[in-house]
Amino acid sequence: MYSATKAGMIGMTRTLAMELGRDGITVNAIGPGPIATELFRKSNPEGAPQTQRILDSIAVGRMGTCRGRGARRPIFSVAR
User: Fold this and answer.
1) Is residue 2 annotated as a catalytic residue, yes or no?
2) Catalytic residue among 2, 22, 42, 56, which?
3) Which residue range forms the structural domain that includes residue 47?
4) Alpha helices in 1-80, H assignment, sequence order
5) How many domains does the chain have?
6) Tell me: the pLDDT tens digits for 26-56?
7) What is the pTM of this model?
8) What is the DSSP letter of 35?
9) Helix (H) or strand (E) holding 26
10) What is the b/e burial string over 31-67, where b = at least 16 CB atoms within 10 angstroms of the residue's CB?
11) What percent of the chain stands above pLDDT 90?
12) Which pLDDT tens digit goes with each residue over 19-29?
Protein backbone atom coordinates (compact mmCIF):
# COMPACT_ATOMS: atom_id res chain seq x y z
CA MET A 1 0.00 0.00 0.00
CA TYR A 2 2.79 2.44 0.93
CA SER A 3 4.67 1.90 -2.33
CA ALA A 4 1.54 2.36 -4.43
CA THR A 5 0.63 5.55 -2.57
CA LYS A 6 4.15 6.95 -2.89
CA ALA A 7 4.21 6.18 -6.62
CA GLY A 8 0.82 7.87 -7.01
CA MET A 9 2.07 11.00 -5.25
CA ILE A 10 5.14 11.12 -7.49
CA GLY A 11 3.00 10.72 -10.59
CA MET A 12 0.55 13.39 -9.44
CA THR A 13 3.43 15.75 -8.68
CA ARG A 14 4.93 15.29 -12.16
CA THR A 15 1.55 15.79 -13.82
CA LEU A 16 0.79 18.94 -11.83
CA ALA A 17 4.29 20.28 -12.53
CA MET A 18 3.80 19.82 -16.28
CA GLU A 19 0.29 21.27 -16.29
CA LEU A 20 0.98 24.23 -14.00
CA GLY A 21 4.57 25.04 -14.97
CA ARG A 22 3.49 27.19 -17.91
CA ASP A 23 1.68 29.43 -15.39
CA GLY A 24 4.84 29.87 -13.31
CA ILE A 25 3.70 27.46 -10.61
CA THR A 26 6.32 25.11 -9.21
CA VAL A 27 5.17 21.78 -7.78
CA ASN A 28 7.39 19.71 -5.48
CA ALA A 29 6.97 16.58 -3.40
CA ILE A 30 8.93 15.34 -0.42
CA GLY A 31 9.23 11.57 -0.35
CA PRO A 32 11.00 10.29 2.73
CA GLY A 33 13.22 7.25 2.62
CA PRO A 34 13.75 4.85 5.49
CA ILE A 35 13.08 6.38 8.91
CA ALA A 36 14.94 5.13 12.01
CA THR A 37 11.98 4.06 14.13
CA GLU A 38 11.58 1.31 16.70
CA LEU A 39 9.59 -0.70 14.14
CA PHE A 40 12.38 -0.36 11.56
CA ARG A 41 14.99 -1.50 14.06
CA LYS A 42 12.88 -4.50 15.09
CA SER A 43 12.27 -5.52 11.47
CA ASN A 44 15.84 -4.81 10.33
CA PRO A 45 18.37 -5.91 12.96
CA GLU A 46 21.72 -4.13 12.99
CA GLY A 47 24.31 -6.07 11.02
CA ALA A 48 21.77 -8.11 9.01
CA PRO A 49 22.45 -8.25 5.25
CA GLN A 50 19.00 -6.82 4.37
CA THR A 51 19.57 -3.91 6.76
CA GLN A 52 22.94 -3.17 5.18
CA ARG A 53 21.40 -3.22 1.68
CA ILE A 54 18.83 -0.64 2.81
CA LEU A 55 21.50 1.56 4.38
CA ASP A 56 23.73 1.29 1.29
CA SER A 57 20.84 2.43 -0.94
CA ILE A 58 20.33 5.76 0.87
CA ALA A 59 21.77 8.53 -1.30
CA VAL A 60 22.46 10.94 1.60
CA GLY A 61 24.22 8.20 3.57
CA ARG A 62 22.05 8.35 6.70
CA MET A 63 18.61 7.29 7.93
CA GLY A 64 15.87 9.83 8.45
CA THR A 65 14.64 10.49 11.96
CA CYS A 66 11.24 11.35 13.37
CA ARG A 67 12.74 14.48 14.88
CA GLY A 68 14.22 15.82 11.64
CA ARG A 69 13.16 19.06 10.01
CA GLY A 70 11.01 17.20 7.50
CA ALA A 71 8.73 15.92 10.27
CA ARG A 72 7.05 19.33 10.34
CA ARG A 73 6.71 19.90 6.60
CA PRO A 74 3.33 19.63 4.90
CA ILE A 75 2.68 16.47 2.94
CA PHE A 76 1.28 18.36 -0.05
CA SER A 77 1.85 21.99 -0.89
CA VAL A 78 1.49 24.12 -4.01
CA ALA A 79 2.91 27.64 -4.07
CA ARG A 80 2.60 30.27 -6.75
Assistant:
1) yes
2) 2
3) 2-79
4) 2-20, 38-43, 49-56
5) 1
6) 998 887 778 888 888 899 998 999 999 999 9
7) 0.48
8) B
9) strand 26-27
10) eeeeeeeeeeeeebeeeeeebeeeeeeeeeeebbeee
11) 36
12) 999 999 999 88
